[in-house]
Design brief:
By secondary structure, the chain is α+β, with helices and mostly antiparallel strands. 22% of the residues lie in helices and 26% in strands. The chain contains 4 helices and 10 strands, in the order αββββββββββααα. It has helices at 2-24, 190-195, 201-208, 212-222, and strands spanning 84-89, 103-109, 114-119, 125-131, 133-139, 145-151, 155-158, 163-168, 174-180, 188-189. Strand 5 and strand 6 (145-151) form a beta hairpin. 23% of the residues are buried.
Length: 223
């Protein structure tokens, strides 16, 4: 009995410093891309390397144009099935973004146009309406909807990884600019992910309560 009590006391004394260190240790959490370790690291898109990001150009090879993106000057086509489109300034076409943890996009909407429900797995988004009126919103992990009509000059945020959307509810075309806190936030359309990724038909049937004919039709649309 005495030996058991002694062992318990000894174990407690050994664990106490560990518990104390865990309580005092700082908890570091990265909510977006990692911080840069230098003034800039312009992506060298010519290197055949597979990294979490891109290798840096040699500083002597960097030019001012590496920090300028011209892609937003040309409006994207909206004559598609959704009546909307986006142009992204991600690191793959804007190499100056590499390691900076930011990116940008332009959204254009025809009348009634929709950017369908989607997520950005690696970044939060902030939208600024340039023209028109958008019904925009996001759904939380417990299925709570936060949505409203935002108009010219309004700003709204969409937290990282949550499903969100924008619908033009005005009487004319609409336009917006968005920024994300990742150099490559990702863009994952919900419908395309479900019906365009070769998920087993039985999974789709049981998830959405669909018959085989409907599953086949939706897979044809979103593949």
């Amino acid at each position: 009995m005495k030996a058991s009590v002694s062992s318990t006391i000894l174990a407690g004394l050994l664990l106490y410093p560990v518990v104390l260190l865990l309580q005092l240790a700082p908890l570091n959490v990265n909510a977006a891309d990692a911080d840069p370790l230098m003034d800039f690291c312009v992506a060298d898109l010519t290197k055949d390397l597979y990294l979490n990001g891109y290798p840096c150009k040699k500083p002597a090879a960097v030019t001012t144009d590496d920090f300028v993106f011209y892609g937003l000057t040309v409006p994207p086509q909206t004559n598609n099935s959704f009546g909307a489109s986006a142009v992204f300034g991600f690191v793959g076409n804007f190499p100056g973004l590499n390691s900076l943890g930011i990116s940008i996009a332009r959204l254009d909407f025809a009348k009634g146009g929709l950017i369908p429900p989607h997520t950005h797995p690696r970044g939060s988004e902030i939208i600024y309406v340039l023209e028109g009126s958008l019904y925009a919103g996001f759904v939380t992990a417990d299925n709570q909807l936060f949505a409203k009509v935002i108009n010219k000059g309004d700003v709204m945020i969409f937290p990282r990884g949550l499903i969100h959307f924008q619908l033009n509810v005005g009487d004319a075309p609409a336009q917006a600019v968005v920024s994300l806190n990742s150099q490559h936030a990702g863009f994952q359309l919900i419908a395309n992910s479900m019906f365009g990724s070769n998920i087993k038909d039985e999974v789709l049937q049981k998830t959405f309560f669909l018959d085989q004919k409907t599953v086949d039709r939706l897979k044809t649309i979103f593949s």
